Amino acid sequence: MRLEPKPAPSLAETLLYPVGAIVATLVIASLLVLAAGASPFSVFALVARGAAGSQFAIVETLTRATPLIFTGLAVAVAFRARLWNIGAEAQLYAGAVITVVLGTGLLPLPSFLLIPLIAIAAMLAGALLLLGPAMLKTRFGVDEVVTTLLLNFVVILFVSMLLEGVLKDPTGLGWPQSQKLIAEARLPRIIQGKRLHYGFVLALVSAVVVWIIMKKTALGFEMRAVGHNPEAAFFAGIPVNRVLAKTALLSGGLAALAGFSEVAGLKGNLTLDLSPGYGYTGIVVAMLAMLNPLGVVAAAIFVAGIFVGADAMSRTAGVPSYIADVMVATALLTMVVAILLSRYRLRWA
Amino acid sequence: MTEALEILFTASFWVAAIRIASPLIFATMGELICERAGVLNLGIEGIMTVGAFAGWFTVYSGGDLWTGVLVAALSGAAFGLLHGTLTVPLGLSQHVVGIGITLLATSLTYFTYRLALPEVTSPPKIEPFQPLPIPGLSKIPILGEALFSQTPLTYLAFLTVAIVAWVLYRTPLGLAVRAAGENPTAVEAQGISVSGIRIGAVMAGSALMAVGGAFLTMSAFNSFFFEMINGRGWICIALVVFGSWRPGKALLGAILFAAFDAYQVRLQQLTGGIVPYQIFLMMPYLLSILALVLVARRATYPKALMIPYQKGER
């Protein structure tokens, strides 16, 4: 079998490939639904209704999409420069920890000062957390995939230690959870009485900002050049290591905003189940979006819809909600194949 | 302080170290085979999860223990085939595909578990492999006890290292595998298919990873629970680098690592809660990162690692 390059696809064609990947994913998921003894059509209809069939469902999907937009952007930025950041989960928790440290009464400031301050500090924590593995990569040649993966476990244990130690809520009846944020540190809700909060707006703004950085700035150009061919970029005079360090700071900072937004916008405090793997799901989101920052928003809403819809479906149809995780993982694999097929023809020879 | 040192001279400590090392030995050998053929297999964490479940579930459904090991190996090989197909002939990013395989294998396992055992709160136990002391040898103080009073699956782990080393360095097949990871063009020039060698290596390696996972459910914890692999797969990737892609060195690395792990558990009991237990639990992961940094400068990666091969291209 050989791969032959083919001409760049048109925009319409480009959009066809993700659709093809999603169709393939649905076909594979149907087999599992059949194995569970249910009808694929009614199950997928239930998932769709649970994800977007009512105002409640839509609000829930957008709420769930919020952290995924941040982690998806973090991964998209890093992967574009071929910095394999698999540590968005850890960076998310770093952002969440800073949010709790600064937001539970340490700084008696009004909202308009306190919230931006916390957000920036959270980003800084996530940025520095990824700078370590990036430096180990550029200085010592240590593969960042393994170090970022291993750091996920270290950071989650560290958070567990904090929640049973210095950050433990004394009124929490012994549960490992932090104190609640003060009112001034909370992100307001977009609609009174609904869970959707201004973290979602921040996520949309971040996507636009990242899009501008990637498309319109010198840094964005350098990141793409480094990702495309680091040696050529080096010979073209691009400071590859410095670009990778900047990429790490941006990527880590974005992932940390997911933690900030979940704590300050949704939960109000920090527990060990803050993220059900948003960092890892961010990889799928970024790939489905073909690493395009604006595409990340659409992909995050789609993936969030699958999770929210599957939860609702599972309650009525009895198919385990893990079907959502299977679909998301399958979508990642079908998507990389689809991207390949958009660029190459397969020839049997 | 002397208590902390005395631990090192107890047989029970070394027995535990060898037991902890066993699943790591299987999975490290699996990853080593893949990487020697030129393919980084980040599916390892998920494939270990599949193996842990498949072995346990086979026994739970009435199969015998060795059938369980076989089923685990076969399900690992199946995911290896998927990984190999996507990364070798299609040449897709080994990073992205590997993470995808881990996510897919893990979620499929959890889905199947929930489907097969709805509404169980505590996972059912199985009758695991029993220790099989080797007559005579197991009576040698400390060393003999540690090595020769283990379960058959541990003996199989050590045997696997010997077989992997022998095949890699003493057979034409091993030469082809090593060459596929160093200089694939030369392999093709011999009329051997690089794709065939690489896919085969990933399948064999994935089968070993799955058996490593199965060790946990069939020879250590006796039941399957979520997130039980707990990063062991990623640690094995570090162990392969630490062992500079050599089976013998990787084996030593795995035992050294397991000894540290067994030691921290005992140290945790000694310190009696003064130091938060999470500090001890972090050690294995931090140690792996440290090991990577220490060997990074003189690490000699297989030259064609992560480089897809296209016939007729150079």
From TrEMBL, chain A:
Main localisation: membrane
Record localization: Cell membrane
InterPro entries linked to this entry: ABC_transp_permease
Keyword vocabulary terms for this entry: Cell membrane, Membrane, Transmembrane, Transmembrane helix
GO CC terms of this entry: plasma membrane
Annotated TM spans: 15-34, 65-83, 90-107, 113-133, 145-163, 196-214, 280-310, 322-341
Mitochondrion among keywords: no
Entry annotated with the keyword Cell membrane: yes
Highest taxon of the lineage: Bacteria
A Pfam family assignment: BPD_transp_2
Protein name as annotated: ABC transporter permease
UniProtKB/TrEMBL annotation, chain B:
Localization per record: Cell membrane
Domain of life of the native organism: Bacteria
Transmembrane is among the record's keywords: yes
Predominant location category: membrane
Keywords assigned by UniProt, alphabetized: Cell membrane, Membrane, Transmembrane, Transmembrane helix
Keyword Cell membrane attached: yes
Transmembrane segments: 6-27, 39-59, 65-84, 96-113, 153-169, 199-218, 274-296
Gene Ontology CC annotations of this record: plasma membrane
InterPro entries in the record: ABC_transp_permease
Protein name, per record: ABC transporter permease
